[in-house]
Amino acid sequence: MTVPPGGSTADDNPPPPRSDWPEDRLAGAVTDVPLLSRTAHDRGHLARALPDPTQGRPVRVLRIDERRSVPVHEGPHGPELVYEELPTLPEGAIYLGEADGVPYAALRAPRSLGVGGRPVDGWAGLREVGAELGDLDAGLLAQAVGIVEWHERNKFSPLTGAPTTIERAGWVQRDPVSGSEVFPRTDPAVIMLVHDGGDRCVLGRQAVWPPGRFSILAGFVEPGESAEAAVVREVAEEVGIAVTDVRYVSSQPWPFPQSLMLGFVARATEEQLQIDHDEIEEARWFSRDELRSGTGPQALPPNVSIARHIIDRWVAGEFS
């Protein structure tokens, strides 16, 4: 399965309209941006067991609408999230943890022109502003979207089918029939740049993407499979070639809906691509010069994605 530009392997999350993606066709320009430093903050496992994990302190609440967008405004150094300052954790909110002694939470809520009496410049999602946010905002946004996605996809017990009840400030769902606890999960997925050991790499595209958009290959790790084995299998399934020299690069949480993207590079041992059109619409070899100059794909993944991070590093000559 080829990865969408943002890094998601979820088939049931169609990509946003083309205007939502940065217009940046050139690779190699953002290699040094710390795209993968999206660290969520300590939730305090002991504090979660308390009736009020904020311990009665004022809490900053991040609203998330049905499109997984949040309120933002333009600060002096770029986009910033707009939090609602509340005296206590509101009903239905999910506790995200604290940073610098301040509790944070997420809450599903409709869009509005203002938040807590503060005007907002607009609503945006992780794909649009993730690469421009500071570490605190970026980490909280990725965590908030991921846990909201989990709740909306797991409203019933996998054991009995009974509607679950939410406990521990949003970090546990309980099956009222069996008493079993259901915890948030993360699905491992591999995302890999396949190169020829020289100056070319394979990029593919899905039919649901706008014309001309290409990215690197990706797919979910199957039960009983290592990440490296998943790289070899997915490449063979999608473009019909064998690879060797599979090397880990880095990882990125991608909460659409609940993936952990494990990034790799691998060297192809054959050249002729045999595309599985049930998996992807098109795949081609592209040279570094094509990606660097913009004469190749009409669009590449956005800067926030691990896909773009790996492409940029390969274009810059880090992998061979």
Automatic annotation (TrEMBL):
Keywords (A to Z) from UniProt: Hydrolase, Magnesium, Metal-binding, NAD
Is tRNA processing tagged as a keyword? no
- Region of interest (Disordered), ranges: 1-30
Gene3D superfamilies the UniProt entry points to:
3.90.79.20, Nucleoside Triphosphate Pyrophosphohydrolase
Molecular function GO labels? metal ion binding; NADH pyrophosphatase activity; RNA NAD-cap (NMN-forming) hydrolase activity
Q: Domain Nudix hydrolase spans what residues?
A: 184-310
Pfam families per record: NUDIX
Domain of life of the source: Bacteria
**EC annotation?**
3.6.1.22
Q: Where does it sit, as one GO cellular component term?
A: cytosol
EC main class here is hydrolase
Give cofactor(s), names only. Zn(2+); Mg(2+)
Q: Which InterPro entries match?
A: NAD-cap_RNA_hydrolase_NudC, NudC-like_C, Nudix_hydrolase, NUDIX_hydrolase-like_dom_sf, NUDIX_hydrolase_CS, NUDIX_hydrolase_dom
Q: Name one GO biological process term.
A: NAD+ catabolic process
The protein's annotated catalytic reaction(s) are: a 5'-end NAD(+)-phospho-ribonucleoside in mRNA + H2O = a 5'-end phospho-adenosine-phospho-ribonucleoside in mRNA + beta-nicotinamide D-ribonucleotide + 2 H(+)
Q: Which residues form the signal peptide?
A: none
Which PANTHER family is this protein grouped with?
A: NAD-CAPPED RNA HYDROLASE NUDT12 (PTHR42904:SF6), NUDIX HYDROLASE, NUDC SUBFAMILY (PTHR42904)
Q: Which family does it belong to?
A: Belongs to the Nudix hydrolase family. NudC subfamily.
Q: Please give the name of this protein.
A: NAD(+) diphosphatase
The organism of origin for this protein: Modestobacter italicus (strain DSM 44449 / CECT 9708 / BC 501)
